[in-house]
Amino acid sequence: MTVTGRFTSPDGTVLDKESLRQKYLEERDKRLRPDGNDQYLRLTGRFAHYLDDPYTPKTERAPKTDHVTVAFIGGGFAGLLTGARLREAGVDDVRIIEKGGGFGGTWYWNRYPGAQCDTASFVYMPLLEETGHMPTEKYAHAPEILEHCRRIAEHYGLYDDALFHTEVEDLEWDEARSRWIIRTNRGDEFTAQFVAMGTGPLHVPKLPGIAGIGSFRGHSFHTSRWDYDYTGGDPSGAPMERLAGKRVALIGTGATAVQCVPHLARACEELYVFQRTPSSVDVRNNQPTDSEWFAQIATPGWQQRWLENFTANQTSAVADEDLVMDGWTDIARRVRSKIMALPPEDFTPEKMAEAFENSDFEKMEEIRARVDSVVEDSETARKLKAWYRQLCKRPCFHDEYLQAYNVPGTHLVDTDGQGVERITENGVVAAGKEYEVDCVIYASGFEVGTEYTRRAGYDLTGRDGVKLSEYWAEGMRTLHGIHVHGFPNAFVVQPTQGANLISNIPHNLTEAGRTIALTIKHALDNGFDEIEVTKEAEDAWIELLLSGTGRLLGSPDCTPGYYNNEGQDSGLRGRLNVGYPQGAMAYFTYLDKWRSSGTFEGLAFR
Ligand code: NDP
To answer: What are the protein's UniProt keywords (predicted)?
Structure first.
């Protein structure tokens, strides 16, 4: 569909939409590369040390050879939420297996300076009501979130049987005994009647496949394994005094870099930020929580109301009052008001898409104008402007990132979409120029578009010896994103093929946790050995998912990144990477009814 012409944004700017579209396409085209996800390096072999845990020493323990009712793989929000719901349901025998040295998942690993939640704490931090915690800020910082993970684990007794620094290597269905055999890298071989897996969408760090990357003689690390021994400082933001006099290269300008750049800018003698694609960085406006206000809102059931309100404001056609009022709901509010302003005869898919596009152009113009208003050097400001639709990449919100480029000694090295050219013994080369540095920090993100089983680090062998990697060879197949035919008593905890709500992942996990706890409880109470989704129910769910309009995020005409599989068409696999066609809130409502009916439609209990 082509929609041409100009429009005047509320501040009076006349926008030539065709030129903007052209500019967006040029920016995409210069970044597209045939190797897609293969451009990145896996952290194995001589790069494996980048994965070492800098935070907790490993302790020896005897291998487990026993049996548990439920084993949960992953000690992040997914495991904590499902574990909590299981305990509430009276299922006490729950063992959480976690590769990190403690609970927290992404918040265990990501302790880089400035790490903070981009979604309002009141909806992002799970189980606030149950644990009685009041977030101290609208957007909590990482140490508080990590502490909250520990609080949840303690509150629900999840430490009791947890195995830390333990990676599952193999999961095998024992047909004769209706249980899973679990093998780990610590020599464990135990069984579980049920297994659930919440390994997280962003848990395998990756390095950019830059020529010469192994040759650097200085210090280097990935942001998800921050080396405070080298930098000084701590996750709470204490100054990184050991960087005084140091020249540091930061590679990447995604959501992580946006948060740590201001801290590095304050600490380093010289900071070089290597940029391939700028992030869109909108206003953050963080606030401490007013305890009187919190006492008023925190009435029974408050967090579920807030969760639903946040989701409804983004994914329903008509939304109530906006409780959270932030950058995420602002995006949806603008689109909705443009669509609602259309005359009745223009309520067509084309006109609605045009309204959506106009709203996006307007928002991105504001974000680009913000760069000019903050960054003093006009050339640096020009390079920091993002030329794509806002949901092409993770929207960022920060009040110190752009400002950091005004700090003497902070340099943006823009690579015009091409990325770093080479790494040498002494530093980083971009556009033919070598920047000598003492330290290279990789803010290069995590594996997303690779196979689920590769990222999980294990495959599942289900009924009749079928592997999950074989069953999902053409793409993921589930009911509700949770149950997989041929893999009885196994549950996946993640957003895809369910609500697929990206702005607040914990809401997906909250609902999945409830569903799994209820389902397991039903089996245990009624003496069933096995739970399995029927082939018919799974097929019908997939058909329903494919009847939708597809992914809203990262369309193919965006600059490449993990939101759009690095700009490559992944065929059916990509089309299956979707959520419920009517949107996240409609999915949660549907799932609630499914649970309340008590019939577990689509599941067979034996
Ligand atoms: P990203 O994948 O978003 O960013 C990686 C960065 O590395 C990109 O800027 C990428 O550029 C750049 N890069 C890759 N290869 C090269 C190269 N060869 N040369 C130069 N640059 C290169 O990872 P992040 O860790 O920043 O964020 C991952 C996700 O984690 C976020 O999208 C978000 O979902 C989550 N997150 C959430 C936060 C929150 O809620 N507060 C905070 C931080 C992260 P290019 O864009 O061109 O590929």
So the answer is: FAD, Flavoprotein, Monooxygenase, NADP, Oxidoreductase
Residue reference for tokens 């607040």: 504
Give ∠ CA 409-414-419 in degrees, rounded to 5: 125
- Same domain assignment for residues 316 and 213: no
| Residue whose tokens read 């055999």 | 181
Tally the domains of the chain. 3
- 154's tokens: 């303690």
Strand partners, 73: 97, 197
> How far, in Å, is the centroid of ligand 1 from the Cα of 248?
18
294 assigned to some structural domain: no
Supply the range of the domain harboring residue 472.
67-204+448-605
Work out whether strand 67-73 and strand 94-97 pair parallel, antiparallel, or are unpaired.
parallel
pLDDT at position 551, please?
A: 64
**Distance (Å, rounded) from C-alpha 460 to C-alpha 468?**
5
Q: Are 278 and 384 in contact (CB under 8 A)?
A: yes
Q: Which two tokens stand for residue 412?
A: 């943006």
Reported as a single tens digit per residue, the pLDDT across 501-547 is 999 999 999 999 999 999 999 999 999 999 999 999 999 999 999 99
Q: What is the dihedral of CA 308, 310, 314, 318, to 10 degrees?
A: 60
- Hey, which of 32, 144, 253 would you mutate to test ligand 1's pocket, going by the most ligand atoms within 8 Å of its Cβ? 253
Pocket test for ligand 1, best of 225, 276, 280, 286 (most atoms within 8 A of CB): 276
114 lines ligand 1 (CB under 6 A): no
Q: Give the ligand 1 atom nearest the CA of 210.
A: 18
Nearest residue (by CA) to ligand 1, atom 2, is 445
Residues 135 and 161 reside in one and the same domain: yes
Cα(227) to ligand 1 centroid in Å equals 19
pLDDT digits (tens, 9 = 90+) for 555-586: 767 999 988 888 888 889 989 999 999 999 99
Cβ of 121 below 6 Å from ligand 1: no
In this structure, the residue with its CA closest to atom 10 of ligand 1 is 252
Report the predicted TM-score, pTM, of the whole model to 2 decimal places: 0.96
pLDDT tens, 198-231? Answer: 999 888 999 999 999 999 999 999 999 999 999 9
107 and 238 in a single domain? The answer is: no
